[in-house]
Here is the input.
Amino acid sequence: MSKQKKQKQERKLRETQTVEERGRRPKMKRKRYEKELVKLQVELVKLQAWVKETGTRIVVVFEGRDAAGKGGVIKRITERVSPRIFRVVALPAPNDREKSQLYVQRYIAHMPAAGEIILFDRSWYNRAGVEPVLGFCTKQQHEKFLRTCDRFEQSLVDDGIILIKYWMSVSHEEQIRRFDARIEDPLRQWKLSPTDLESVRRWYDYSAARDSMFMATDTDFAPWYIVRSDDKRRARLNCIRHLLRCIPYQEVPHEKVVIPQRDMTHAYDDTASLESRRFVPEHY
Here is the structure.
């Protein structure tokens, strides 16, 4: 039997297995998920107002294997809030100049000012996972990072930043299923890279790097929180709920908004003046 045919049969078996056979809870229904998500997003709006009012600075780190659901959680967090307060940082590979800098230097540049929440979609922890596994850093660089990372994070916390770190945990079977879905979906094919495919082959190398990272950087002042993410909907809700509980925010009172009357002093037909302008064709 060819390797391709065997892989196809294994995928088909995973698809036909029941939830109980896979040892998982049933997937959360969309209706319940959307109802709970709205409740949490209302609280995120309250958090936003509190952060702006108090000048609090927050950093949230999202790490995990490829296809673990980091982007999905971040999208739901930022969906209903201001991008000027909730800022997402997803840095590309460093250029030659950045490679010669202090390793954490380009991340420091994105630390929050007063009244900002920074969401790192991958972070300085690249040096604890992707880089050593794929050979993008030396063994010495990796070991140095693990020795010094806690001091860097301690300096952030000592400066008053609230630092929260999440590891999105996905099973091997679910990761493969999501990669298969990306191959078939033209809207998600851009998410699949050679690095993603290599992560499948090096599953246990990534596991060992993760374990070393936890051993060195799971501290009392900046602990890791693991989010089970095989069920995306549950993972998003659990993560957002936990994030809200980690921050001592309070609802900020708002003055009642009154919409003013239009000033008619200089009134004119301001639609007629647009008739000679170019409009987008109304195709729909």
